[in-house]
Specification:
By secondary structure, this protein is α/β, with parallel strands linked by helices. It has helices at residues 40-61, 87-99, 110-121, 168-178, 186-193, 214-225, 230-256, 271-278, 288-291, 296-317, and strands at residues 2-7, 11-17, 22-28, 70-76, 104-109, 132-137, 142-150, 154-162, 205-207, 210-212, 261-264, 283-285. Helices cover 44% and strands 22% of the residues. Helix 1 (40-61) packs parallel to helix 2 and helix 4 (168-178) runs antiparallel to helix 7. The longest helix is centred in the last third of the chain and has 27 residues, at 230-256. It is globular.
Length: 318
């Protein structure tokens, strides 16, 4: 059995993976009504409170007396020098305590965890053996990546395009809070947008392969001041983000080729985005529980890393 931890700025997550089935328990961090996020100190506090309860709940769901083979954890946002957020230290400490010297602790990034969870949800983990494209779309990240197998990190993710200002999840959450929705606002905004009675023709702003999303918030504020309906404002925001992502993907495929493209992060669970992209591209979308922040990917990372070590050892001794 492999245990995973992820303590992002949105969710406390723990998961167990036996090589086939994922069991996970998670809890959204509480954000006061009208606010658009949490300070790191508050996120750290909530993770510290949440983890014991989630671990206990997970223990009740897995076979008693199981053999712990490895522990995975996200200890930073991305696998690059200088990537750091204090909230991930809580998960790292829990992972080390869980292993207690009995097994290996396998550290990766929150981003790689997202990608692996998405691949698992799509039953496409075999893609880790070849190059593919990935979009990581969340409240803190709007990035397109070229992902390749890597001996050290398992997967090496290199940014090839990004948002130059506001992130997709930020645009959604800021518009949602403006409309009186509870943070994070993605699911509610998605439902409202489906009730819109307007069609919007969007011309996304791109510089090379990078997009700019700050105009979405400004336009949404203007629409609200002009008494536009919540449903139509929601639809405008969603359609604008979808148009930007599709335009980015068009350019990326021209430059990097028609590789498979994996969508991860909470924004990827948006129904409209899935509808637009799935009909045109060789794309993979995770189910919502594996799109949003979760520890499934870190448990899978531990499993894959341990198996890779075993293969290397067997090759060396044979």
């Amino acid at each position: 059995m492999y245990i995973g931890f992820d303590t992002s700025n949105y969710t406390t997550s723990v998961a167990a993976f036996d090589g086939e089935t994922i069991i996970q328990r998670k809890k959204l961090l509480e954000v006061k009504k009208g606010e658009k996020g949490l300070r790191q100190s508050e996120a750290v506090f909530q993770h510290t409170v949440n983890l014991p309860h989630l671990i206990s709940a997970l223990q009740e769901d897995i076979i008693k007396g199981f053999l712990l083979s490895g522990v995975g954890v996200s200890n930073k946002p991305r696998n690059v020098e200088g990537s750091y957020m204090p909230c991930f230290l809580v998960g790292e400490a829990a992972a080390k305590a869980c292993a207690f010297g009995r097994c290996g602790v396998y550290k990766t990034s929150h981003q790689i965890g997202h990608i692996l969870a998405a691949l698992y949800s799509c039953k496409s983990l075999d893609l880790i053996n070849e190059p593919f494209l990935a979009f990581h779309l969340s409240g803190g990240t709007t990035e397109a990546l070229i992902v390749k197998p890597d001996d050290k990190e398992l997967l090496k993710a290199e940014i090839i395009a990004k948002s130059l200002d506001l992130k997709a999840g930020q645009a959604i959450d800021r518009a949602g809070v403006m409309l009186g929705l509870k943070f994070p606002c993605g699911a509610e905004l998605d439902k409202l947008s489906a009730l819109s009675d307007k069609k919007f023709k969007i011309n996304p702003t791109l510089k090379g392969l990078d997009c700019s999303l700050s105009g979405i918030e400004n336009k949404a504020n203007k629409m609200l001041a002009e008494d536009e309906s919540k449903e139509n404002i929601s639809a405008f925001v969603i359609e604008s983000i979808c148009a930007a992502i599709e335009k980015m993907l068009e350019g990326i495929i021209k430059e990097f080729g028609n590789l498979p493209v994996v969508f991860s992060g909470g924004v990827s669970s948006n129904s409209r985005l899935r509808e637009i992209i799935s009909h045109k591209y060789n794309s993979y979308f995770a189910e919502p529980q594996f799109s949003c922040d979760n520890a499934a990917g870190t448990a899978i990372f531990a499993y894959l890393s341990q198996n890779k070590l075993n293969e290397c050892f067997n090759s060396f001794t044979s």
